[in-house]
Every structure is written in C-alpha cells, then in structure tokens.
Amino acid sequence: MEKLFDAEYRFMEILWELEPINSTKLVGVCKERLGWNKSTTYTVLRKLCQKGAAKNEAATVTTLITR
To answer: What φ, ψ does residue 22 adopt, rounded to 5°?
Structure first.
C-alpha cells in the first residue's frame, strides 16, 4: 500500500472513529474538524479508495485498512 499523506491520515482517523458513515455526514464532519469543503472531502475519499484504504459503496464509507 502507498504511504498516506498527512491530510489523508487525518481523514482516515475520522473514518476509523466513525465508520461506517454516510458520505453526506462525512462531508459535514470534515468541514467541522478539518475545515474542508465538499469537493475536497470527495477528492481525498476518491484517492483513498484508489489506494485501497477506504471503500464508498451505496454512500456508506468504510475503511479497508487498520491503523
């Protein structure tokens, strides 16, 4: 697995804490905790899915790796 960037790791910390989480709710949590807008959240989520670290199925986000 590729190394996670700092922002990706902070995002994964949220996922590990709250999974499974609805993607819409995740956008709100990332806005509150990280100051990210919707497009940033979905961009990072897409990259993590491509890396095999997370999964977004039927608007439910889960992790595929452990801490």
So the answer is: -65, 140
Contact 13/52 with Cβ under 8 angstroms? no
Give the alpha-carbon dihedral of 31, 45, 22, 20, to 10 degrees. Answer: -110
As a whole number of angstroms, the longest Cα–Cα distance in the chain is 29
Are the C-beta atoms of residues 19 and 29 closer than 8 Å to each other? no
58 phi-psi bin (left φ>0, alpha ψ -120 to 50, beta other): left
pLDDT band at 1 (very low <50, low <70, confident <90, very high): confident
Average pLDDT, the chain: 96
